[in-house]
Amino acid sequence: MTVLARITFPVLAFLTCLSPIPASGEGKAEGLSWDKQVIQLPLEPSETSAEAWFTFSNETGEAIRIVDVQSDCDCLVPNMDRSVYYPGESGILLARVDVKEDQALVEKRVLVSSRMGKQTVRTTELLVIARRP
Predict the structure, then answer these.
(1) What is the pLDDT of residues 34-61, one digit of tens each?
(2) Of 56, 74, 73, nearest to 114 (Cα)?
(3) Which has more confidence, 81 or 129?
(4) How many angstroms separate the Cα of 62 from the Cα of each of 14, 87, 116?
(5) Which of 32, 46, 96, 100 is most buried when burial is the number of CB atoms within 10 A of its CB?
């Protein structure tokens, strides 16, 4: 993780705290409607990685550009299928998390920054929870 990322992520995380994740785990932010903002992944004892699929759609009348996607750890790699979503389009953010064999619980965050038109960049927080029995 670069020095800039180490500085930027805590600032974005703090700003995200001003707009908490809805208790239901579902949410609409910046015109993107996320099916879930929290995904819990059960892990078998021998598994060392898991994938979370966050699906969303653009329910606005304008294109939305994804300007940045960051995770709070090198063990979580987020990947989106593209950077611009037009009205009515859907997308997927795939978050792959690596888990050490001795870890029973891992909670990692992904911050998705997006812009609609000339609007200020907005950030949505997604949470991946991987748990062993």
Answers:
(1) 999 999 999 999 999 999 999 999 999 9
(2) 56
(3) 129
(4) 27, 6, 7
(5) 32
